[in-house]
Write a structure and sequence with these properties.
alpha+beta; Dna Ligase, domain 1; Rossmann fold; 17 helices; nine-stranded antiparallel β-sheet; 32% strand; eight-stranded antiparallel β-barrel
C-alpha cells in the first residue's frame, strides 16, 4: 500500500480523497494555486505545495509543476480527482516515466476513451450501442452545417476532449449549428486546450443514465449499478440519483454488461463511468466513457456501501477487487444536489465572492434512519473565485425508498445556510417539491420544460402562505417583546405589544390575532382553530426550526423593514407584519418602479470580456450577438434584446467586469 499520495486537484474532490486516505493511514499532499492559498484542501492535507498563479493553465494543468511537487514531497502515488489532468494520458505517461503511481486507468485507456470520436469507434467494435453521427473532425462552421443537415436536426455539437458539459451545444437549425460550432470550439480550447469538434444526432426526450464500472489489474471488472443524471442545465448535471427510477432489472443488466464489455475492450482498470442516453422505450446509446471518478460518485457509494476512492487506491497498488458481480446489490435510494455559486434568478449566471455564512445541515445517520452527507471544499469565509468550477458542495441523502430520500433532501436543503454569494439552494428546493420530479418523469430537458422563463422563485400555495404568515407573526411577537423590554429599561413609559396585526405575503393579507400564555403562542386567522407555533428562535438568528400546527420546518429569517425576509422550500419573500392602522396606510403607498436598463448592455455576472462584436454606430437586430463573457470556464454570448444602434462601447476585450457593469450603451 502507498505511504503518501499527492492529490493533483483542488476543492471538494481533493478533500474527498484526503478523507479516504486518512482512513487508510496514508499521508496526503495538497497542491494549490495563488487563489487557493487558504483553501480547505490545503488545511486538511498533511503537506501542501504551491504550484503557481490562479489560472489553471499555470497551476493545476501544469504537468511539470505537479511532478516537481511529487519529487519535492516524496509522494509515491498521485490521485488526479476529476477535471484538470484526471483524463490526460500525457500526465499519466509522465508519472509512469518517473516511477510514480497514477491512481487511475492505464494511459492507453485514457487516450482511447478521452477522445470521443475514437471511443465511439471502440464502443461499436465492442458491441455497444452508439448514437448515429459523424465521427470525423469538423473543420469550420459551414462544414458543421452541412453535416448537421445530413444527420438531421436536432444535433449535438460536442468537443472531442474533456467533459463536464463544456464545449457542448444543441443545434435545431443552421443558425444554431454555425453559432454552436464556434462557441463549442472556443470553450473546448479554453477548457481543455483541444478544439476538435464532432456532431451526433440529438435524441429527443432523452434520459442521461450512466453505469459505474470498477476493474483491477488482474482482469476483473464489475458494474455497480446506475445513476440517473437527467436533471441538467447547460449540459451540466445538477441533481443525480441512484438507482434510476426508470430502469428495470433487464435494462440495467444489459447496460451494465455493455459497459463492462467496453472497459474490457480497452484493458480498463480503476473506477470509470460509461454514460448512456436512454429514450422513452428504454433504448440506450453510448455517449462517452469518463475515465476517472465522477462528481456524482457519492450516490453510488451510498447505495452499494463501497468507497470508490478506496477501491481506486487499492487497485492502483495492485490489489484484486474484493468482490464479484454477484456480490453487487443496491440498497435503498440516494439523491445528490449540487450546490453551485450561481444566481438562479439571473438565469443561473456565476456568482463570486466570500461565503459570509456557510452552515451545512447535520451529517450522518439521523434518528429517522436516513443519511445526510455533504462533500465540500469550502468553509465559512472561503472565497469563491472566477477561476474555477462554481460548485460549492454536493449534498446527498439516503433513505430506504426514493420519496423518503427526496423528503430528507428537502429538509436538508431547508437547513443549509449559505450567505454572501448567489446560490441555487432555492432552485434545488423547488425541484424537490415538483410532482413531476417526485414521480420520476425525467428527461435532460427537464429544467427547460419546467422553467421555460427561467427560475423566479416559488409562489406559495394558500397553505404555505398561512404557514409563513404564522412564522412571521411569531417572529414579530418575539421582536416586539424584545423592544418592549429594551424600552422599559430606557423610559418611564414602557410600551405594550398589541394582539391584532395584519400580515402581508405575496400580495395577500391576513388579519390575525396573536396571543401567548401557558407556554403557547397561538396565531388566530379568524377562519378556524388558532394555529400553535413553537420555536426557540430569537431575533437576529438567521435560521431556526418552527413547529407550525404540529409540522416541523426549517426557515431562514432576516429583518426587512416592518417584517421579515423568509426563505423556505424555494420561496423567498418579505412578509410584512403591521398594526391595522399602519397596514391601512401602507396600502396607499405608491409602488417603486424598477430602473430602466433598456438602453444599456450590462454584464450579467462577474467575468472576463472575451470579445466585443460591434463598434459604435453599428445598427443591430434583436438576437444579434454583441459580446461574449467568460466566467468559471463557461463562455456566455450576450445578445441584443431589440433593434438598436450602438451609441458607446465602454468595455474592451480582456476587461474583468463585476455584475451589472455597463459594457455598451444604445441610442
Amino acid at each position: 500500500m502507498f505511504k503518501k499520495i499527492l492529490i493533483a486537484n483542488r476543492g471538494e474532490i481533493a478533500c474527498r480523497v484526503i478523507r479516504t486516505a486518512k482512513t487508510l493511514g496514508i499521508s496526503t499532499v495538497a497542491v494549490y494555486s495563488d487563489a487557493d492559498r487558504d483553501a480547505l484542501h490545503v488545511r486538511q492535507a498533511d503537506e501542501a505545495v504551491h504550484i503557481g498563479p490562479a489560472p489553471s493553465s499555470q497551476s493545476y494543468l501544469a504537468i511539470g509543476k505537479i511532478i516537481e511537487a511529487v519529487r519535492q514531497t516524496g509522494a509515491d502515488a498521485v490521485h488526479p480527482g476529476y477535471g484538470f489532468l484526471s483524463e490526460n494520458a500525457h500526465f499519466a505517461d509522465a508519472l509512469k516515466a518517473q516511477g510514480i503511481n497514477f491512481i487511475g486507468p492505464p494511459p492507453v485507456a485514457l487516450e482511447a476513451m478521452g477522445d470521443k470520436i475514437t471511443s465511439k469507434k471502440i464502443a461499436a467494435a465492442a458491441g455497444v450501442n452508439i448514437v448515429p453521427g459523424h465521427m470525423g473532425l469538423i473543420e469550420d462552421s459551414e462544414e458543421a452545417v452541412r453535416i448537421s443537415r445530413q444527420i438531421g436536426y436536432p444535433v449535438m455539437i460536442k468537443a472531442s476532449a474533456g467533459g463536464g458539459g463544456k464545449g457542448m451545444r444543441i443545434a435545431w437549425n443552421d443558425e444554431d449549428s454555425r453559432a454552436g460550432f464556434q462557441s463549442s470550439r472556443n470553450e473546448a480550447k479554453s477548457s481543455f486546450g483541444d478544439d476538435r469538434i464532432f456532431i451526433e444526432k440529438f435524441v429527443t426526450d432523452p434520459r442521461h443514465i450512466e453505469i459505474q464500472v470498477l476493474g483491477d489489474q488482474h482482469g476483473n471488472i464489475v458494474y455497480l449499478g446506475e445513476r440517473e443524471c437527467s436533471i441538467q442545465r447547460r449540459n451540466q448535471k445538477v441533481i443525480e440519483e441512484a438507482p434510476s427510477p426508470f430502469l428495470d432489472a433487464a435494462t440495467r443488466k444489459a447496460m451494465g454488461e455493455q459497459a463492462v464489455a467496453l472497459a474490457r475492450e480497452v484493458g480498463y482498470f480503476s473506477a470509470g463511468t460509461v454514460e448512456f442516453i436512454v429514450d422513452g422505450q428504454k433504448n440506450f446509446y453510448f455517449l462517452e466513457m469518463n475515465t476517472r471518478l465522477q462528481v456524482e460518485h457519492p450516490v453510488t457509494e451510498l447505495v452499494t456501501g463501497i468507497d470508490l476512492v478506496e477501491e481506486m487506491i487499492r487497485v492502483a497498488a495492485g490489489e484484486k477487487l474484493r468482490f464479484t458481480q454477484d456480490d453487487m446489490t443496491l440498497h435503498g435510494w440516494a439523491i445528490e444536489s449540487r450546490l453551485y455559486a450561481e444566481d438562479p434568478y439571473r438565469n443561473f449566471l456565476p456568482s463570486i465572492g466570500r461565503l459570509a455564512r456557510y452552515r451545512p445541515p447535520v451529517e450522518g445517520r439521523l434518528p429517522d434512519g436516513t443519511i445526510v452527507r455533504n462533500d465540500t471544499g469550502v468553509f465559512e469565509g472561503s472565497e469563491i473565485s472566477m477561476y474555477y468550477d462554481p460548485m460549492i458542495a454536493k449534498l446527498c441523502t439516503w433513505a430506504p425508498d426514493r420519496l423518503t430520500a427526496i423528503d430528507s433532501m428537502t429538509k436538508a436543503l431547508d437547513d443549509f445556510e449559505v450567505e454572501g454569494i448567489g446560490n441555487n439552494l432555492p432552485f434545488l428546493s423547488a425541484v424537490m417539491a415538483q410532482s413531476r420530479f417526485r414521480e420520476g418523469r425525467l428527461t435532460t430537458a427537464y429544467i427547460a420544460e419546467e422553467f421555460p422563463q427561467g427560475f423566479s422563485g416559488v409562489t406559495p400555495s394558500e397553505e404555505e402562505a398561512h404557514t409563513l404568515a404564522a412564522v412571521a407573526a411569531f417572529a414579530n411577537l418575539r421582536a416586539q417583546k424584545r423592544a418592549v423590554l429594551i424600552s422599559g429599561t430606557l423610559a418611564n413609559h414602557p410600551r405594550t405589544v398589541g394582539r391584532d396585526w395584519v400580515v402581508r405575503i405575496d400580495g395577500r393579507e391576513f388579519a390575525i390575532s396573536v396571543s401567548e400564555g401557558g407556554g403557547q403562542t397561538l396565531v388566530d386567522f379568524g377562519d378556524g382553530e388558532p394555529v400553535e407555533v413553537k420555536s426557540d428562535w430569537l431575533p437576529g438568528r438567521p435560521h431556526a426550526h418552527f413547529e407550525v400546527a404540529g409540522r416541523m420546518i426549517g426557515v431562514k429569517l432576516s429583518g426587512a423593514g416592518s417584517g421579515h425576509r423568509l426563505r423556505w422550500r424555494g420561496i423567498d419573500m418579505v412578509v410584512n407584519v403591521r398594526s391595522p392602522r399602519v397596514a391601512e396606510l401602507a396600502r396607499l403607498m405608491p409602488k417603486r418602479l424598477p430602473p430602466d436598463t433598456s438602453k444599456v448592455l450590462l454584464c450579467p455576472m462577474p467575468g472576463v470580456v472575451t470579445t466585443i462584436l460591434v463598434v459604435e454606430g453599428d445598427a443591430v437586430e434583436a438576437g444579434q450577438a454583441l459580446a461574449t463573457v467568460e466566467a468559471m470556464k463557461m463562455e456566455n454570448v450576450l445578445r441584443a434584446e431589440r433593434r438598436a444602434v450602438i451609441k458607446r462601447v465602454t468595455a474592451n476585450a480582456g476587461a474583468s467586469l463585476a455584475v451589472d457593469e455597463i459594457i455598451m450603451e444604445f441610442a
